Structure formats: C-alpha cells, structure tokens
Amino acid sequence: MSKGILYLVPTPIGNLSDMTYRAVEILKTVDLIAAEDTRTSQKLLKHYDIKNKLISYHKFNERKQTESFIALLLEGKNIAIISDAGTPGISDPSNIIVKEAISNEIQVCCLPGATALITALAASGLNSDQFTFVGFLPTKKKDKDNLLKSLEKLPHTLVLYEASHRITDTLKELSLLFGARQCVIARELSKLFETYLRGNLTELAEKQDMETRGEFVILIEGKPEENLTDAELLTLISVSVKPGIALKTLSTQISDATGINRNRIYNLALTLKQPHDL
Fold first, then answer.
1. Domain 116-220: which topology?
2. How confident is the model at residue 277 (pLDDT cuts 50, 70, 90)?
3. Measured distance CA(151)–CA(158) in Å, rounded
4. Cα separations in angstroms, 259 against 104, 179, 206
5. CB-based contact 183:157 (threshold 8 Å)
6. Given this structure, which CATH class describes domain 5-110?
7. Tens digits of per-residue pLDDT, 9-45?
8. If you average pLDDT over every residue of the chain, what do you get?
9. What is the pLDDT of residue 278?
10. Per-residue model confidence as pLDDT tens digits over 200-216
11. 61, 85, 63: which is closest to 9 by C-alpha?
C-alpha cells in the first residue's frame, strides 16, 4: 500500500480572495483537514464550498494527534494541515508532524501562499536581501531579554510578530534597546484596515494615537554600519589583534561589533604588514 501525502496548505492572512486555486483543490480532495481552530477554519471552508472532514490540530494536542495522523498517512490517507491564517509551521503548529512524517518517509508537500512576514517585508522599504525572522517574542522576561540582546548587533532587518495586547509594551522595550533605528509597523495585512506606520522606532514607540487592535508585524532595520574610513578601520583592526586569533575570526568579531561588512574588514586586514600574526 502506498503512503499518503501530508500537505501544508497556507490560508489567507485576511482577505479570503488570497486563497489559491490549488489550495482549494487540495482541501476538497484530501481525506482529512487538520485545523488550528475548527471554528475559524469553518468560515473559510464554507466560503469555498469545501465539505471535507475537519479535525482540530493545535499546539495543545499536537503530539497526541500526530500519532493518529501518521497512522492514517501510513495507510495511504492524504491529510492537509491548515492554520488560522498564513503558512502552517511559521509561528503555527505542524513542526512535530512534519518531522514525524519525514522520519516515516512520508511525502511532505507545502503549497506556496500567504505569510505575513514576507508580505510586510516586501512592502516595508527596509533591506530585504537579508533578514532575521524572530516570530513572537518569549513571554518570560529573562528569555526575551536574552533573545533581544543577541539580535542587537545583527546588520540585517529584523522581523517580529506581536499581538494587540502586547504591542505597546513591546515597542517601548524595543526602543530602549535599538534606539532610533528605522522601523515599520504593519497592521491587519490584506484586511480592510491594513496600515503601515513608518518612522524611527523611538518615535513610533511614543506614538499616542496608534491603533492597537489587530495583528502586527514589526520590522526594524539592522545595526547601521559605522562610518569609518579605511585608516580608522585599520587602526581598529590593529588594536583588536590578540595572540592566536584567526584573521577570519577577528573580522567576524569586528563586523558584529560595528556592523561593517566582514569582507571589507578582512581585505583591509590583509594589507597589514604581518597578517600571519593575526
């Protein structure tokens, strides 16, 4: 008996018209649809006249449901995973079942589709060549502080998700750490009241009239490169030299501390009289 296929099917993040033809077809033809919230998903299925069997699959029952789903897949049944909005597995459940499916040599097929982070990043105007997706910040203060501290010196754009009841406090915390970096706040993407707020993080954190209802994506520019001349940078390299440190390691450390391109640092370091001493 051939094994079934596990489909990860993105759903609209707001506008129901963003559902793809292929996604509708898959949801109509699989043997079972597993949804994060069956009440929310019923509205989507009704809109597209999808009458397939629906069962709950969320972070609280993920491990329990995974066992039964894998058994069905091994029997040849096809299962589709959907979340309340966006792509399953991106700040939503499905990682456990995907890992189990792969370990059982079951095909995993993820359809392309909506995801808030890419939508917001593309429209932000911030550097999108490289970015770090953070998702939702930890709720425990110590874990959150440690994570944010590890992100402080990254030179590329940061993308975070935040809920309405935490957005004000989170922006204040971010502004204390990242200062007046350029920031974009995307709210209610693809919905009627879609909004983009642009400015520096300090100003946005202090904005008194910001609408706090809805789902938010926060985008923050990476650590700006320090404006050092080649001569100043060579001086910094020279004073940073320590016995036994490799040139590449030194370049990485200085890049992390300054935001300056690592290749520029490395190439300048090579011009020193005794680069082998590095």
1. 3.30.950
2. very low
3. 8
4. 44, 15, 27
5. no
6. alpha beta
7. 999 999 999 999 999 999 999 999 999 999 999 999 9
8. 92
9. 46
10. 999 999 998 899 999 99
11. 85
What is the full DSSP assignment across the chain? Answer: ----EEEE--B-SS-GGG--HHHHHHHHHSSEEEES-HHHHHHHHHHTT----EEE--TTTHHHHHHHHHHHHHTT--EEEE-SSB-TTSSSS-HHHHHHHHHTT-EEEEPP---HHHHHHHHH-S--SSEEEEEEPPSSHHHHHHHHHHHTT-SSEEEEEE-TTTHHHHHHHHHHHHTT-EEEEEESTTSTT-EEEEEEHHHHHT-SS----S-EEEEEPPPPPP---HHHHHHHHHHH--TT--HHHHHHHHHHHH---HHHHHHHHTTSS-GGG-
Shortest CA distance to 101 belongs to which of 132, 74, 138?
74
| Both tokens assigned to 7 | 């489909």
For the record, the structure tokens of 51 come out as 């009458």
Q: What is the mean pLDDT of residues 129-136?
A: 94
